[in-house]
Amino acid sequence: MMNVFIQEFPKQLKVAMEIGEQVTLSKHDQPIHNIVVLGMGGSGIGGEFVAEFVRDTCSVPFLSCKGYRLPAYVGKNTLVIASSFSGNTEETLIAFEQALGRGSKIVCISSGGKMIEEAKRLNLDCIKIPAVQQPPRTCLGYSLVQQLFVLNYFGFADKQCIQDLKASIALLEEHQEQIKVKASQFARKMEGKFPVIYATDRMGAVALRLRQQLNENSKLLAMHHVFPEMNHNELVGWTKQPGSYVAIVFRSADDLERNSKRIEISKGIITKAADEFLEVDCIGDSLIEQAMYAVHLGDWITWELAEARKVDSIEVDVIDLLKQELAVAALG
C-alpha cells in the first residue's frame, strides 16, 4: 500500500495546490517580525523544506519548532503556523496553546482533531486538508504546499515559489518511471549497509526526509549531515570507524563551487571506509523542483528496501506503543 501512496505524490501536490489557491486568510493587526512553524514527524518535515525554500527571500527569521516549548521571543509579532495532520499531536497542541496565550497570529493546517475544533471555536485561520486514511509521512505535499501559500499571502514567499511547485508536479509526472528504476538500483546497493546521508546546507531537509523515511518505512537506523558543516566534525569519524556503510550524497548543478569541491575531496576520504558511495543528481530548474525530485526518489528507495527486507512499510507499532504509554501516564 505504501507504494500506492508514493505513486500518488504528484497527484497529492496537485490537490494541495488547488486547496492553497482557494484559501482566504485574515490579516494580523501587528507587524510580523518572525515566523515559527509547529509540527512533529511527518507533519513537521514540511517546515524544514519551506525554511530552505524561502531562506534567500524571507525578510524575517524563520524557525521550525519541534517540541513542547516555544522560544521566548514568540509573541504578538510572530506568525505561527501549526501543522498537525491528525490535529491531535501532543507536542504541537501544547505549543499551539502557548502561542494562543502570547497573542501570536496563528494559522492551523490539519485534517481534523482537536486542532480544527479549537481553531473553529476561537475563529482562527485554518486550512483543512483531506482526512485521508494514510500515514502523516505520506502527506508531506499537503502541509508543505499550504505553508508556502500562507507565507505568500503574508508577503514572505514570492509567487515564483508557487510556480516552482507547479513545475515540480510536471517534473515528477514526466520522470516517475525513471525515478522508480533509479530507486531500485540504489536500494540494491544499500542493502545490508548502514546509510549515511549527505546534502548541502540548502537541501538539508532532503537528507533529513530520507533518514526519517528509512526509519519508518524501511525500519532502518540512519544518519544524516550537511556540507560544509560535516567537514568540520563528522568527516574525521570516517577515518577510524569500522562497519559496513553506504554514503548517499544529494547533488545539484546549483551547488556552490566550494561545496562541490568539498564533496569531491570528502568523497576520496569516505570511499576508503564506505562500501558504497552513491551520488544522486537532483534534476530540475529550481531548488523546489530538485527537492521534490529528491523526496520522490528517496521515498521509492525506502519502499524498495522495505520490500527487500520483508518488512511492512506502513507499520509503526513502536510509535503507537509509545503514544499508548504516554496516554496511560497522563491518566495516572
Write the topology of this structure.
Layout: H1 2-7, H2 9-22, E1 34-38, H3 41-53, E2 62-65, E3 78-84, H4 90-101, E4 105-110, H5 113-121, E5 125-128, H6 140-153, H7 159-190, E6 194-200, H8 204-216, E7 223-227, H9 234-237, E8 245-251, H10 257-270, E9 276-281, H11 287-309, H12 317-331
Parallel strand pairs: 1-2, 1-3, 3-4, 4-5, 6-7, 6-8, 8-9
Helix pairs in contact: 2-6, 2-7, 3-6, 3-8, 6-7, 7-11, 8-11
Protein model, in words:
The structure is a single chain. With 332 residues, the chain is of the alpha/beta class. The protein has two domains: 156 residues, Rossmann fold, CATH 3.40.50; 134 residues, 3-Layer(aba) Sandwich (Rossmann fold), CATH 3.40.50.10490. The chain has twelve helices and nine strands. The protein has a five-stranded parallel beta sheet with strand order 2-1-3-4-5, with helices on both faces. Strands 7-6-8-9 form a four-stranded parallel beta sheet. α4 links the parallel β3 and β4. α6 runs antiparallel to α7 and α7 runs parallel beside α11. The model has no long low-confidence stretch (mean pLDDT 96).
H and E string: HHEHEEHEHEHHEHEHEHEHH
Strand content bin: 15-25%
Count the domains: 2
Strand order of the largest sheet: 2-1-3-4-5
Structural class: alpha/beta
> CATH H level of the largest domain: which superfamily?
Glucose-6-phosphate isomerase like protein, domain 1
Strand segment count: 9
CATH architecture of the largest domain: 3-Layer(aba) Sandwich
CATH domain class of the largest domain:
Alpha Beta
Contiguous low-pLDDT stretches (5 residues minimum) are: none
Percent helix among the residues? Answer: 40-55%
User: What composes the largest sheet?
Assistant: 5 strands, parallel
Shape: globular
Distance between the termini: 37 Å
The pLDDT mean sits at: 96
Q: How many separate helices?
A: 12
